[in-house]
Amino acid sequence: MPCSHGSRLCIDKRRYKIQAVPVLRSTPAADSAKRPSACCVPSTRLLGKDLSGFATLFKALGDETRLRILGYLLARGDTLCVCEIEAHVKDLSQPTISHHLRLLREAGLVTAERRGTWVYYAVNRVARDRLVQFVSYLGA
User: Fold this and answer.
1) Would the pTM of this model clear 0.85, i.e. be above it?
2) Are the C-beta atoms of residues 78 and 72 closer than 8 Å to each other?
3) Distance (Å, rounded) from C-alpha 15 to C-alpha 22?
């Protein structure tokens, strides 16, 4: 239902509240003509850098289970057998844990070494240094 303020009324069925949602009345051509404000201009530190490799790292870090596995490996500081990692992440099945370890390995965050029938995982120090490098790009 439109109202006199150019808004539309929306009912949130979960909370039973009426919320006004503004109706945008701009065209794409008008938006492109606007100049970005100072807050939207990208930092010059990041403009000349090759950031494509960082996206893969952050995608792998975007899951709570993978962060938990990586944190466990960092806390232990040594190579761990996959059976030890499975014992640490008890709420997931073995195939799910193997899937997460594979994604971490493909992103270059962990290294894997087969010893007999077991695979031992460790944090890849090169990836750790790359994450530190990214933070330095941000100026933090």
Assistant:
1) no
2) no
3) 19
Which residue reads 């990208």 in tokens? 42
Residues 6+ apart with CB under 8 A from 3: 9, 20
- Please report, for the domain that includes residue 124, its CATH number: 1.10.10.10
101 in the same domain as 32: no
Together in a domain, 65 and 120: yes
User: What range defines the domain where residue 12 resides?
Assistant: 7-40
Total domains present in the chain: 2
Asked whether residue 30 falls in the same domain as residue 76, the answer is no
Identify the three-state secondary structure at position 94: helix
* Percentage above 70 pLDDT, the chain: 62
Report, as an integer, the average pLDDT of 106-128. 90
Helices (H), the chain: 28-33, 44-47, 52-60, 64-76, 82-88, 94-106, 125-138
Q: What's the pLDDT tens digit per position in 76-94?
A: 888 899 889 998 888 898 8
DSSP letter at 136?
H
Q: Is residue 45 part of a domain?
A: no
